[in-house]
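Instructor's aside before we start: the two examples that follow are unrelated to each other. I chose them only because their records fit on one page, so don't look for a connection. First example below.
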Amino acid sequence: MNNKKKILILNWRCPKNPLSGGAEMVTLEHAKVWVKKGFDVTWLSGGYKNCKKEEYIEGVRIFRYGNPLSIYLLAPILYWFKWHGKFDLVIDEIHGLPFFTPLYVKGPIIAFIHEVADKIWDYMFTFPISWLGKWLESHYFKLYKNISFWTDADSTIEELVPMGIRKKDCIAINCPASNSAISELPKKEEIPTFIFVSRLVRMKSVEEVIEAFFYIQKELPNAQLWIVGDGDKVYYEELVNKVKNYSISNKVTFYGRVSNEKKLELMKRSHVHLLGIKVHAGWCLVVIEAASQGTPSVVYYTSGLRDAVKNDKTGIVLQQNNPKEMAKQAVLLFKNKERYILFQNAGLLWAKSLTWEKATEQSLKLIESKFNV
């Protein structure tokens, strides 16, 4: 007889989905440790082109049905008719929309949310879907009033409380980078080099970084900007045109999607990491990855980002979210070599202090509390 406690993760995407991101990577890091600790973990998600309907990843059993949108409708049907009574805990991972598990799951539930979406709906969809998404978000939290919430940053908890979620029901587990921090400060590029690393989608506000760099190169004429990542093709073309309009094409390099090794190499060689996300960021692992390579970040004051960057220690959290201020602070940091080195060393210590051992120990305690073990 199998006495393993069974956990079901509901997530619109799986780790192998081409559009999966940091949220799926973080979830898998936790889930594979749960498997090693003796839990039976199943992950239900929407499918994608040419995907397998079922497979194991790091010991986690993956099921794919429909697509990342239809899975929200299919999940309660599959849970009730295929798996009803077979799971001891359900993790409802919220990406703008929840799986509304309190309506059909009678056992323990943990809501895993990376950010309160709010204005993200305006970046992801057009009216009326954007309006509907925000309207649903303003109401669905009532269903989760007595549910435990797991998130990445304390600032997200601050945003959950006004939604009716009790602070005592929330836990923030900070996310480490998947790579190790370097042991000594690296050799940087000979010319001032700034970098942006993320998916090229509107909610990342890459145009803010490009505009900031336009001002940066006025102060540092030989500066260059590296943009690392791929994404929406239409948005990418808009970014390329923006660079042309600013007459800085010879100073900006679009690398597209690169390997993890290449990404870390570029981070290590660059001087300052820039991130101008104007909406909720959840946590943003690239900030920790940059710090682990001796590269401070200059970021907008946004939930998640203001947790991942320790202001005036590992980087700068701007008090005014605009490209001119980003440029000003980035140039000041680059020119002040003593301050820059202090930020580098503090960033390395910060990245080293965040470990998967600590993070998964916290998530294990959370799920075990639901089993009373």
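Example two begins here.
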Amino acid sequence: MALRTDDFDFHLPDELIASRPLEERAASRMLVVHRESGKIEHRMFRDFPEYVREDDLLVLNDTKVIPARVFSDDGKVELLCLDRLSPTEWRCLVRPGRKMKVGREVTVGGTRGVVAEVFENGDRLVRWDAVVDLDAHGHLALPHYMGRDDELADRERYQTVFAREEGAIAAPTAGLHFTPEMLEKLPHAFLTLHVGVGTFRPVSAEVVTDHEMHSERYEVTEESARRVNEAGRVIAVGTTVTRVLESIGLEGEARLEEQAARGETDIFIYPPHEFRVIGGLLTNFHLPKSTLIMLVSAFAGRELVLEAYAEAVREKYRFYSYGDCMLIV
């Protein structure tokens, strides 16, 4: 029987949605789920190193969030830069879209842009006459469920301490818990996937397999691929890392090609899925009926994940981007 989107629903009280980060990154709670036994533990994220074995390798997403949301100088138009095709060419979401037809102009911080193309899905290609200063005029596109606009403090906290490759609209949130001190003591490697707006796109299809997955750009270095192959167990830090590694894993083998890889992935992971590369997953708590909770359910089993989520709600864990985390081993 086909899985339905409603099979991944759960009740979440609004007060459990974290709209702001904790004062300390590593102060989050951590729900530990053991796949084989079904055991659930309540721990703190600072205990995470206890679960990392000598032959493990953490893989983290080093994408860097850019302040991709800008407003026209007259305040009438909002643009969200989905992709910088060149320093002066953006693929954008634009509001209100009906006014921004081909040839219409918009000015941000004195820099003039013109709509050069309207794509089939409604995105706009905007060409600027100079580089827009995002640091001065841009805002972080915080997820809608935070219920607030970005603040100065978010520039630092809605960013992992290891972020270095600019291009994401949203943070790879499982990585937000790490401090430099913890990370330097753990075996780790990086890849890059620029998290796009599709991450927050709701699943509107009634049947899971009818959902059309978004595509995101990734890059894996030859060194990271080699270290993944040499690891006894790979622990993916986040669903973005999971999607990349499972996308490029060799068919039928728990390994990658040992060469640099870059491209786009639109892999949609839902139960049942045979995981070829990852053996552990650190992730935050995700929205009901989202592609992300479907991925987590593919890794740990839908019933166990929903049981763990119900436990997290009972114990008042903090949910979503600035919330607590779950380790699945």
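The helical segments are 134-137, 154-157, 180-183, 222-230, 239-248, 291-300, 302-314.
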